[in-house]
Design a protein that fits this description.
By secondary structure, the protein is an alpha+beta fold. It folds into 2 domains: about 80 residues, 3-Layer(aba) Sandwich (Glutaredoxin); about 100 residues, Glutathione S-transferase Yfyf (Class Pi), Chain A, domain 2 (Up-down Bundle), CATH 1.20.1050. It contains 8 helices and 4 strands. A 4-stranded mixed sheet has the order 2-1-3-4. Helix 1 runs parallel beside helix 3, helix 1 packs across helix 8 and helix 4 runs parallel beside helix 6. The longest helix has 23 residues. The chain starts with a strand and ends with a helix. The mean pLDDT is about 95.
Length: about 210
């Protein structure tokens, strides 16, 4: 039985917001889903940009709070449902590493991968927020080589975020499909919440076609 929280999620299937759908499933949270059609550029309409001026999903609305930015949403939701155990609380030794790897996604990984996908020449290393692409990938692989998840044997909301991202990025060959990454992606794929989210997105896509 889901936990009621009055959450509204703006979602496009599939997109980065699919990870938020999976997180809500992992948290056993009830929510209202509002679908945004990227094919018709619904995300750029005045109505949606009144919610998020960036014209991007995911977005959640909870009471009077509007939360954009994928990492902020993950932190907010995982903390909102402490009973699920997906966010180490303040005072827990894993809290700092947990926040580190969530922040690393938005500040280092996505910029590095987007630059690589666009064929952009790297700037001066000292000026780059992520140093360089190879260092980002080596840092990720080194962490995941230590255990099953980013916090070792402890599954967290960070793994929902990273599992979704690395699934797509290895598939698109923007991240090398090393043994470590492939094993991590496989563990992500086997989670019931992952399978459920993929089935739901596929059903929505089929209905829209």
């Amino acid at each position: 039985m889901g936990v009621e929280a009055g959450i509204i999620l703006y979602h496009a299937a599939p997109s980065r917001s699919s990870g938020v759908v999976q997180l809500l499933r992992e948290l056993d949270a009830l929510y209202e889903l509002r679908l945004i059609d990227l094919k018709t550029s619904e995300q750029l309409t005045p109505e949606f940009r009144a919610v998020n001026p960036m014209g991007k999903v995911p977005v959640i609305v909870h009471g009077d709070a509007v939360i954009t930015e994928q990492v902020a949403i993950f932190i907010y939701l995982a903390d909102l449902f402490p009973a699920a155990g997906l966010a180490p609380p303040l005072g827990d030794p894993d809290r700092g590493p947990y926040l580190r790897w969530l922040a690393f996604y938005g500040s280092c990984f996505e910029p590095a991968v987007v630059d690589k996908s666009m064929g952009r020449e790297p700037g001066r290393r000292a000026m780059m927020p992520y140093a360089d692409y190879d260092t980002v990938i080596a840092t990720l692989e080194g962490q995941l080589a230590k255990g099953k998840y980013f916090l070792g044997e402890r599954f967290s909301a960070a793994d929902v975020l990273w599992g979704t991202a690395l699934t797509w990025m290895t598939k698109w060959k923007l991240v090398p499909a090393t043994e470590v990454f492939e094993a991590y992606v496989q563990r992500h794929a086997e989670r019931p919440a992952t399978k459920w989210t993929q089935e739901q997105d596929q059903a929505r896509q089929a209905k829209a076609e």
